[in-house]
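Quick one: co-fold with thymidine-5'-diphosphate.
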Amino acid sequence: MNPSIIDLPKILDKRGNLSFFEHPGQLPFEIARTYWIYDVPGGEVRGSHAFKKQQEFIIALSGSFDVVLNDGEKEERFSLNRSYYGLYIPNMYWRKLENFSTNSLALIVSDRLYDEGDYIRDFEQFKNIKNAI
Ligand code: TYD
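Sure, here it is.
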């Protein structure tokens, strides 16, 4: 599966709207971990790395930010700014999060527990591994 925007159900209600995701309904993987990124100072960039195995789904629960993906050859930018869709990122994509708005909240779910050994933090190393696949 390629990186893709996944639209989530939107339960419209005068009392306030509700959205959700679950596996296998919306997500292509079972969730093992949830984390979030918040209080990002203006101009900061998070997450310049790739994962060997981990897949992720990222939602802008509040505010907006961009996710920039690189497959080793070309770059693609996804702007996330609504809480009723998110970006699915397969393993082996270099990804960074940038252009955070004030008070933005990035929710990230992953199919794996935290494992520093799954990170590729060097872009040249990432390209070498990706091109060898
Ligand atoms: P990191 O994934 O490098 O942050 P980002 O990709 O957003 O720039 O994580 C920063 C640190 O936080 C990392 O060194 C260890 C810790 N951490 C955990 O302990 N558990 C987690 O689930 C995550 C995502 C990070």
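If it helps, The chain has a mean pLDDT of 97.
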